[in-house]
């Protein structure tokens, strides 16, 4: 029987104002060939690189003896941007920022810009002050309300300075030894400092070369905020055995003793080859989860029974992965798991094993003869022409909220009946891989009696914490607008809500903005919906989607400790989160995505969509997402546009309100 996930009706009634009393979300049975194996996420793909120095947060109130804030920071660049964030627009507008150079002169910025700093609809009022052609050395800043705040009012602010838009050659990067963070284990955080002045090819303005290449790093410290609120600080140490381009690696271990999010900051102080002092900060965010479902290393194969298989010639089997636990009651309640396994023919410990296929998808916990198990489905067409015996390799179970691998087994037997193995070996290999082999025979076949008015619809999906629609609705025809405004959704939950929203339509296409694009691809990958029945050129079209994450996600978690978390933190949109999520998305699903990206216009003194965000993001960017993180391997890239920012209230118009593109997407959308 096809597994189903029942959408919580009461929640959908509240959120979407639409009744889906009979909605059932059906899992796809995923599979693919050996060339499409899905290896676990690579930790290096989630490396954070920073040119920033986080300064500090502060709170001013009438009841305090201190009515202003003073901070110092080192400048080793000809240009820099100073950023101040506040909890409200009124506090920011009332805050006077005075910056003084090392020589004692008050310096006016070359450019000042206000705007929303953040990701999606979770933003803070920001002021960015750009300084060009400045002195090197220690600068100071004074922040003071021009009008004293009223009694009981607290002015909360957060500041940082960045040198990404100047000529500083120094940056710091942070990565982790693993992306799959489990309680009771230890993660090694790794930091590396890139200082181009210490490269033999570096030339200073006068053409001279650095004469000294000794280590000039003074300190590399790691600060970690644990889920309980506890903060620890310790020095990071070099590992002489590990270097990159002659740069030392600094390491420190973090013990994951609690469930929840860990915020790490790496603070570096050092000197360039020419003696100029610098400071940099990089951050890293990881979430620890419990090992809720552990594989036993044994599988039981049973026939699959479903009304959809009555006219299917190939045998359908259920591969039940048994858990190492006596009963379902001993496994903590959880949403479905994401499960993956590779099938090989030949002896498990032999050298002649041949890769055959992979199977995977979402799976609920179930009991098989009183033994807890997670089920995957196998169309034996994949096994035709292969000699047995068969076994599974690289089996993994992932927790769905974080996509962390909570259990894995290198290999286990796939116990098929002997006559089944002999019969499959005698058959010709399948020449054409069908969509049903990849997604299950129930996909695209569950037709309902519906009126023509409910068919051929285009769903418009907004993004993370969106306060309102990002689209110019008049550009689209026969559409339905998803309205889950000001909400923070995990990818899987977002996909469920969109699937339930589209359930009354026999077929539909979809356009997604920002995280809405991620939710659509997740839904198409794992859930059988009307999107599978759509006819036309493009099932999924997306705008400004951070396919590989945004560094703003982790930074917002740090800022939120002071300024408030707004609609909530979202680990899914970090480098770490998207890297793990994408590792489970097969290439055939990605091929259904047609995506557009944008960036700021050029030709200004400094180019940006939001000056404060531009200080954090690599260039070019759209104010929330870096161009280098918008590519979807296996997807269809439809173009990158200058002068189109991520959302409203930025210097250039928002990408989702471009009339010509919207009309084109409406025309080409599958429905």
Task: Explain what the structure shows.
The chain is mainly β. It has eleven helices and 35 strands. The strands form eight sheets. It has a six-stranded parallel β-sheet, covered by helices on one side. The longest helix has 12 residues, at 515-526.
Record the SSE blueprint.
Elements: E1 4-6, H1 9-16, E2 24-27, E3 30-32, E4 48-50, E5 52-60, E6 69-75, E7 79-86, H2 89-93, E8 95-100, E9 111-119, E10 122-132, E11 137-145, E12 155-162, E13 170-176, E14 186-195, E15 217-225, E16 231-235, E17 237-244, E18 247-255, E19 260-271, E20 277-288, E21 295-303, E22 316-323, E23 337-345, E24 354-363, E25 365-368, E26 371-379, E27 390-399, E28 404-414, H3 418-426, H4 435-439, E29 457-461, E30 479-481, H5 491-501, E31 508-513, H6 515-526, E32 527-528, E33 540-543, H7 552-563, H8 575-582, H9 587-590, E34 593-599, H10 611-614, E35 636-642, H11 659-668
Parallel strand pairs: 29-30, 29-31, 31-33, 33-34, 34-35
Antiparallel strand pairs: 1-2, 2-32, 3-24, 4-13, 5-12, 6-11, 7-10, 7-12, 8-11, 9-10, 13-14, 14-18, 15-16, 15-19, 17-18, 19-20, 21-22, 22-26, 23-24, 23-27, 25-26, 27-28
What are the key terms here?
single chain, 671 residues, mainly beta, 6-stranded parallel beta sheet, 5-stranded antiparallel beta sheet, 11 helices, 35 strands, globular, disordered N terminus
């Amino acid at each position: 029987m096809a597994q189903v996930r029942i959408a919580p009706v009461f929640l959908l009634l509240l959120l979407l104002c639409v009744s889906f009393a009979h909605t059932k979300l059906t899992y796809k049975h995923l599979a693919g060939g050996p060339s499409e194996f899905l290896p676990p996420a690579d930790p290096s793909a989630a490396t954070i690189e920073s040119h920033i120095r986080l300064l500090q947060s502060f709170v001013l109130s009438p009841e305090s003896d201190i009515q202003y804030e003073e901070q110092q920071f080192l400048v080793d660049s000809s240009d820099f941007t100073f950023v101040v964030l506040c909890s409200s627009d009124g506090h920011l507008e009332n805050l006077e920022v005075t910056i003084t150079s090392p020589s004692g002169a008050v310096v006016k910025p070359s450019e000042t810009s206000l705007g929303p700093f953040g990701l999606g609809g979770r933003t803070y009022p920001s002021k960015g002050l750009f300084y060009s052609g400045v002195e090197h050395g220690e600068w100071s800043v004074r922040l003071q309300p021009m009008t004293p705040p009223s009694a009981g009012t607290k002015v909360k602010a957060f500041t940082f300075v960045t040198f990404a838009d100047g000529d500083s050659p120094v940056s710091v990067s942070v990565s982790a030894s693993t992306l799959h963070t489990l309680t009771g284990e230890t993660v090694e955080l790794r930091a590396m400092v890139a200082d181009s002045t210490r490269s033999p090819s570096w030339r200073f303005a006068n053409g001279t070369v650095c004469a000294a290449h000794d280590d000039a790093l003074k300190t590399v410290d790691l600060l970690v905020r644990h889920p309980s609120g506890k903060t620890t600080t310790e020095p990071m140490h070099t590992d002489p055995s590990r270097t990159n381009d002659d740069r030392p690696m600094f390491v420190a271990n973090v013990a994951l003793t609690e469930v929840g999010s860990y915020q790490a900051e790496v603070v570096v102080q050092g000197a360039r080859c020419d003696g100029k002092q610098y400071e940099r900060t990089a951050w890293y965010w990881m979430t620890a989860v419990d090992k809720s479902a552990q594989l036993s290393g044994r599988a039981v194969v049973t026939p699959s029974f479903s009304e959809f298989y009555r006219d299917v010639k190939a045998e359908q089997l259920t591969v039940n992965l048994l858990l190492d636990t006596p009963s379902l009651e001993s496994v903590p309640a959880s949403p479905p798991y994401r499960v993956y396994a590779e099938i090989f023919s030949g002896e498990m410990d032999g050298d002649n094993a041949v890769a055959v296929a992979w199977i995977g998808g979402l799976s609920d916990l179930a009991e098989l003869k009183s033994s807890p198990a997670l089920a995957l489905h196998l169309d034996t067409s994949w096994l035709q022409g292969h000699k047995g015996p068969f076994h599974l390799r690289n089996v993994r179970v992932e927790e769905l909220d974080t996509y962390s691998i909570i259990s894995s087994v290198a290999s286990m037997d796939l116990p098929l009946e002997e006559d089944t193995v002999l019969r499959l070996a005698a058959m010709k290999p399948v020449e054409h891989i069908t969509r049903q082999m990849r997604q299950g025979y129930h996909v695209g076949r569950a037709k309902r009696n519906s009126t023509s008015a409910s068919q051929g619809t285009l769903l418009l999906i907004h993004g993370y914490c969106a306060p309102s629609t990002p689209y110019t609705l008049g550009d689209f025809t026969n559409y339905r607008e998803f309205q889950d405004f000001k909400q923070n959704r995990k990818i899987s939950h977002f996909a469920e809500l969109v699937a339930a929203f589209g359930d009354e339509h026999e077929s539909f296409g979809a356009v997604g903005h920002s995280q809405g694009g991620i939710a659509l691809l997740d839904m198409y990958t794992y859930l059988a919906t009307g999107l599978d029945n759509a006819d036309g050129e493009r099932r999924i079209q997306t705008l400004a989607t951070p396919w590989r994450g945004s560094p703003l996600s982790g930074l917002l978690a740090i800022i939120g400790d002071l300024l408030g978390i707004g609609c909530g933190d979202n680990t899914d949109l970090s480098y770490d989160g998207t890297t793990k999520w994408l590792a489970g998305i097969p290439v055939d699903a990605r091929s259904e995505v047609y995506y557009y990206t944008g960036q700021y216009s050029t030709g200004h003194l400094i180019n940006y969509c939001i000056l404060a965000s531009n200080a954090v993001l690599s260039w070019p960017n759209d104010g929330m997402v870096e161009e280098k993180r918008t590519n979807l391997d296996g997807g269809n890239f439809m173009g990158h546009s200058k002068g189109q920012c991520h959302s409203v209230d930025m210097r250039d118009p928002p990408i989702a309100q471009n009339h010509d593109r919207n009309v084109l997407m409406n025309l080409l959308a599958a429905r």
